[in-house]
Amino acid sequence: MNHIRNYLIAFMGNVTFTYFIFAEGTLNKPVMFATLMLLLMMGMDIIKSRTTHSLN
Question: What's the whole-model pTM score?
Fold first, then answer.
């Protein structure tokens, strides 16, 4: 549940910041950018969790 909250906060932050960066008045590019960043973060977390093996 902690990961989901972090993902949502990062997604909302990315949408907000890119809305001001692109400054078009539409939400198309900010939502697309934030979605791609969310997929990148989730993919990195999945790969990171798979590569941490322990012998215990």
Answer: 0.77
Closest CA to 38 of 50, 20, 3: 3
pLDDT tens string 7-36: 999 999 999 999 999 888 888 889 999 999
What's phi and psi for 12, nearest 5 deg? -65, -40
Q: Who wins on pLDDT, 3 or 39?
A: 39
Q: Following DSSP, what letter does each residue of 1-56 receive, concatenated?
A: -HHHHHHHHHHHHHHHHHHHHH-SSSSHHHHHHHHHHHHHHHHHHHHHHHH-----
